Amino acid sequence: MTEHDAYEVLAEGTWGSVVGIKRANGSCPSVDWLAALTDAQQAGMKARLDRLAETGHQKTPENFRKVSVDGQPVVYEVKHTGHNLRLFVIKGHHRYYATHGATKPKKNQLPREVQRARDLYEERQR
Length: 126
Prior knowledge:
By secondary structure, this protein is α+β, with helices and mostly antiparallel strands. 35% of the residues lie in helices and 29% in strands. The chain contains four helices and six strands; from the N terminus they run H-E-E-H-H-E-E-E-E-H. The longest helix has 17 residues, at 39-55. The N and C termini lie close together (11 Å).
């Protein structure tokens, strides 16, 4: 399997890239989720992903945070707070791996979203 088969580029910049992880069946949960958003929501998330690829971080720290759920790998969320959207990512060397997106999860649902991100990431590492 080539790297192109495993990932779909969402944003590239000076710092690195943001890629969506493709599943073994060819689906890409992060791309599918982004495609289902409204034009305004897509534009907001695209701006955040472009900034992440360009600098490795967000201008506003509230739009990007490490999720406080124990375990490895560490999962981050890219936030679009105006629409309560979250895109879950895992940081690699000059690359963020986007696993999936969701509306803002309730506090008791966050561990499930983090585990889903880890499962999708680990599935592609095998």
